[in-house]
Amino acid sequence: MPETFDQKIATTLADSRLQTAIYTATNRLISHRKAVVSADALPDYQELRTQANAVKAHTIENLDWYLEEFERNVLDHGGHVHCCRSAADVADVVLEIAKRRGARMIVKSKSMTTEEVDLNERLEHHGLQSVESDFGEYIIQLMHTRPYHIVAPALHLTRYDVADLFERALGVPNDPVIENQCRTARGVLREKFLEADIGISGANFLIADSGAVTIVENEGNARLSTSAPKVHIAVAGIEKLIPRAQDLGTFLKLLGRSATGQPLTVYTSFLAGPKRSGEVDGPEEFHVVLLDGGRTKLLADPEKRESLYCIRCGACLNHCPVYRKIGGHSFPWVYSGPIGAILTPQFVGVENAPQLPFASSLCGACAEVCPVKIDIPKILLELRAEVKTAEKQNGENQLERAAFSAFAYMAVRPKLWARALGFGRKLPIPPVGPVAAWLSEREMPKLPAKSFRELWKQRKSA
Amino acid sequence: MAMATVLERLGFAVDFPGAQTCCGQPAFNSGYLDEARAVAGHTLKTLADCEYVVVPSGSCSAMMSHHYEELFEAGSPENALAASLSPRIYEFSRFVTEVAGVEDVGARFDGIATYHDSCHALRELKIKDGPRRLLGNVRGLELREMDTCEECCGFGGTFSVKFAGVSGGMARSKIESILRTGASTVVSIDSSCLMQLQGAISRAGLPIRTMHLAEVLASR
After folding, report:
1. Domain annotation for chain A: domains and CATH numbers
2. Complex ipTM > 0.85
């Protein structure tokens, strides 16, 4: 039986090595970001956030228009656009292309959207080999697990873990030197790039007025994945659209800074169509696979559709004190941290992830660092209310509901409230339920000899 | 009581409307909006005639000034009442620095203290420097900043019991940060953070005490 949410959390909390790994990595990401978004380093940081939010809001409100414009421009450049409703549809598109080209080997650059649709598993099921070429993703693929973090998939591993993994999976000597580990991975992956029939990438932005796909990365593997093989397929959620190439500046200034503290990533690629006649580099075929996968359902919800503004920078994960304790694999779906806590219930249904919106202290650190100003705490509160409405309809969690009804009943009856408080002070509190949960970690507060109300009465009569 | 003492010393007449109960935040944050609405309606009626409402808690203040309006339909009498009350609601430190216009209340407190930014005061009410300036003017008090002063203590209302292990872990991280400052007192403007931190400090048996800002400012 798979571990429950609570069990996964407990396992992560109890693993001190893992806790250290998460804290070390997120601390580094936090301090790097802080240095490059400070008022000295980037005086217009807040204006950029406001602008990015406005551009995303406008695009999401007019998504149908921009999707059509994007498609027209991709076709004009000789590319192909495939619209997919579900995860299975994405795999079918890739399989169909692979079959036509007689392809066996696929190289992939990093893409959360392909994680979302389990693309590797689906392709392997049909006898295709699909190799991740981002260093972190390569490690994760060898471990047969899923990314721990949106941006840093192997954030939870130390170089010693990787040394053990490479020894086991690749038969190389155990070597904890990171440079040597990179060299090993590069040696394996170079062969794959040369051998691959198809390259699959994600997309950081889809630019409507240019019909272009923009990819940011640091390793150069996305560049190789999208140019060495004869076919390039970019897989992206429909929310990745932005209207104009000139809007990119706003987002590129924010994305690298928020994600890794880089003013710009090492590589920024603009890919618009296949190789033209007379060009030496580039793929013969250029495909863009646009995934709905539940996004249009979010689009219909004016209160929560801002969830679609996300540019997957991961800053909310790094700054979330809950993510930093429970890690990425405690979350039930591919997206973890605060953004995962709002996307998952909306994509898989609140009834399938009812605990998730409550796994937050609502501290607001996520919204504070979000480069596109998604009000994550507000959306968590809305999802909480949805969970409670569903529980009420299904007659679930009746004890808690009764407790809150009693609370509200007394809170609108001041005399009863004051009497209950006075009574409560004198009663021993039984250590069950929430009291037991409190006592599992903390002592009860010590109450002063007299209540505030008693003291206030004395003070006024004195 | 400490808050009333400080306000009276500053020359304000303090009333405690006995009919007040709770702001309703526990229900609001737990997804029980009908219950939150009922409690908010009662609180609005109770406080409607006050010239200023001064609250010794960042999160209760934010609940009343930021969330009451959205609980009631636009155009309803409660919505109008919430809108008229909102600008009269002040978190304690903000009232002292902005309405009373005082940064030195004449307090004395001997010791090293560190200030914990409560999340709702910091991020919803944007209170950051006021409490620090007030503490900086307390005679005998040395204020030392934590490296993670803005990180959550882990309370989060029902979160503290629904995810007790995570909440407790967050408190311990915070306490480690307090210990690194060498402070013997941790000050905040939110009673719930103080309850969480004191509970975890007592469990760990550490010689640190938690105090509300008003208690420090009332010290002579």
Report:
1. 5-296 (3.40.50.10420), 414-461 (no CATH)
2. yes
